[in-house]
Amino acid sequence: MLMLTEKNKFIATVLAFAVIPMSGLATDIYLPSMPSMARDLHLPESSIQLTLSLFLISYGVTQFFAGSVVDSFGRYRITLISLALFVISFLITANTGNIYVIYAMRILQGVLSGFAVVAKRAFFVDVYEGDERKHYLSIMTIVWSVGPIIAPFIGGYLQSIFGWESNFYVLAGYSFILLISEYFFSGETLKMKKVLSLNLLKKEYSMMFRAKDFFYGMLMCGLSYSMIMFFNLCGSFIIEHKMGYSEVVAGYVSLILGFAWMLGGFIGKALINKAFLPKLRIANFLQIALIGMMILASFFLNNIYSLVAFAFVIHVTAGFIFNNYFSYCIGRFPNSAGIAGGLTGGMAFIITSAISYGIVAILKPEVQLDVAEGYLVMGILGLLVLTLIQFRKAHI
Fold first, then answer.
1. Domain presence at residue 129
2. Per the database record, which ranges form the Major facilitator superfamily (MFS) profile domain (predicted)?
């Protein structure tokens, strides 16, 4: 297997950063197209929303075992295979009108995202050490947020000009460019392969789940990202169907909220040396206060400007909490970086898919107040987890 050379280290790092947002691109680029997909395929909104949840579930479940696979077979080969299959699956999605084929492809794309992203998370742990590793892992969570920022913005224009199928053609082209670039400029970074063993995997997972700080961190990652995905599931339908705006406007809204998520990540990186739990408790209290203000304002304001303004500041707090805990969890077990990254991502996205889809199914959000109520549920759950963390720390 071709090992990564020192001269290709920089470009391989750039490519790793380019692969990391793939999951966000695959979930968010077609958000403005979801109402049109429902209309064109003659399906209810819930059927199209399910394509997103199926992706997230398969993405999350895959990461449970993807870490052990990339720790056993290496990062490079797995990345190449994933990118090649991405190209095929996106082309199939764009060329079928059968919702069950789309479901199958979305599940496959979730699986491939799990392998590719876990491999690239482990790349940074393999290649960098100490403060440099900490620096790159923090940047990685920010770069990962680039996908949700630019994807719906691009998707809104693609939908307006070419239709929903064009989203998946663009994803296929992006995957192909990455595949060729990886083949020529990257290489293997795993220095010592581990034997793929169910007993070893069970032992590693048992050790990680017993680390309560790691376990609570995974819960907080899932709850934080649930706020983002909750809006993604219902936002386009509210903006396009209830408020009467175009898919381009829906794309701009997603772009703005993507910047909120990234801003939260930048603030998290800027405050990386501040006391860990106190800054997260402050962020959570601020988040709940903002949600309370959103609920009160909903009785007087119910337009796209108030909806986006409140969602923006709430998403900043969610991005801040996620950045801190995700970076912490991935770096928690450096000798099992693939497994730790896979378990963190897996738990986070299973929690995200279950909570976000569940709240949307129960509340069926149609107005700003409904969105605020969904945020409140997630904010209170986050407060409960942080309270448990503080209680446990006080009694150690």
1. yes
2. 12-396
